Amino acid sequence: MPGRHSAPRTARGRRPLVVVLAVVGAIVVLVGGGAAWAFTRGPLSSSRAAAMTTASPTHTPVPAPILDCKESVQAGDAAVAKAYQSYNDWYVHVKAQWDLDKGKITVPQAKHIWDVTHARGSLDVNAADASRIIYQREQDACGKVPSKVPAKYASAVKNCKSRAGLIDKTMTAGMQVGDEWADHVLKEHQKRTIDPYDYHLMWVKAVRKAPKALNAFKKAYTDYKKAPVCQLPRSS
Asked: ∠ CA 199-1-99 to the nearest 5 degrees?
C-alpha cells in the first residue's frame, strides 16, 4: 500500500492550543451638559422632576435552572462544532487511502491530503478537548430543570431539553472519532521512533477501523442538525 504512511519522515512538533483571553476595559465619558443646563436654567418643574424620578419597570428574571439549561446547550453546540472538525479531517484523511487503493487518486495527491489534514491535527484535538471539557461541566443542567416551569417557558424548555439530548448522543459518537484521530496524530509525531513496518501496520488497522466511528458520528450529527433551537422568550 503506497503512500507516506508506509515510510518514516521527520516528525513535526505538536502545536498545543493556546487560548488567549484579552480583557478590554470600557471607558465611559460622562458629558455634563445636562447638569450645566440645570444650573443655568433654574430648578426643574415639579412634573419634570417627578417624571425623571419615576422608577423604571421591574422585570421578572428567568428562573436560574432554565438559564443554566440554555447555557449548557450553548456549550454543547460549541463542542459539537469542534467535534465535527475532527470528524471531517479524520474522514478526509482515511478517505485518501481508500481512494488511493481504488485508483481514484495518485500517491502525490494522497500525500498532499495527508499533509493538509495532519497540519490541522493537533489543533483539532486540542480545540475539541477544550470545548468538550467546558461542555461536560454543564452537561447535566437541562436535566435539573423542574418538571413544572412558568407557562411562558414550557415550550422553550422542551426544545432545549430535546436539543441537549441530541448533543449528548453526538458528543458520545464524537469522542470516539476524536480518540481515533488523536491516536493517529500522536503516532504521526512519533513516527521517527517507530519501525516503518510497524507504523504501516498501525495505519492499515486504523483505516479499517475508522468507518464504524465515522458513520456513527455522521448519523448522530445529522439528527442533531434537525434539533429544535434552544431559544428563551424575553423576561417580563
From this structure: 115
